[in-house]
Specification:
Blueprint lengths: L1 H15 E8 L4 E4 L2 E4 H7 L1 E7 L6 H15 L4 E7 L7 H7 L5 E4 L4 H5 L7 E6 L2 E7 L6 H10 L3
Parallel strand pairs: 4-5, 5-6
Antiparallel strand pairs: 1-8, 2-3, 4-7, 7-8
Length: about 160
């Protein structure tokens, strides 16, 4: 019985990091370092780590330091991190960001249209995008798996 439970747990863990079918990334406008762009346009120049988060999301407290680390370590190699906040009131994000500052771009989606276009199943959910295509989707966040996720992201860089 314990062997069966182990296999089920292993399968569930493997499903958290799923290579997405080569499907187009829904496009949206954003400002990056003062310049207007779109996520698809940006993904033609860099590898985009797009994360959906909310101020009430417990695991997001741990994903923000991880994304800062990605930004600092992999940014010079061509990765850009964009985190989309889905709080209905963007002001709800301020206390969270004061406690867990972001070194990367924060974008707000109070109406949930971007999250809906990406069919976000829960918080946090991250997508890796290149050339307008979703390469990877990762649902949830566990500190214990951060090295594995970072290696997965780095594998897509030149």
């Amino acid at each position: 019985m314990s062997q069966l439970m182990f296999r089920i747990l292993a399968l569930c863990t493997a499903l958290l990091i799923l290579p997405a079918r080569a499907e187009p990334a829904p496009d949206f406008a954003l400002t990056l370092e003062g310049n207007a762009t779109t996520v698809v346009q940006l993904s033609r120049e860099k590898l985009v780590y797009l994360d959906f988060w909310a101020s009430w999301c417990g695991p997001c407290r741990f994903s923000f330091p991880f994304m800062n680390e990605l930004h600092q370590e992999l940014g010079p190699k061509g990765l850009v991190v964009v985190a989309v906040n889905v709080d209905v009131d963007p002001h709800d994000a301020k206390p969270f960001l004061a406690k867990y500052p972001a070194d990367f771009t924060i974008h707000y989606d109070p109406e949930g249209t971007i999250a809906e276009a990406y069919q976000v199943p829960g918080m946090p959910t991250s997508y890796l995008i290149r050339d307008g295509e979703i390469l990877l989707r990762h649902v949830g966040f566990r500190k214990s798996e951060s090295d594995k996720l970072k290696a997965e992201v780095a594998d897509y860089l030149p």
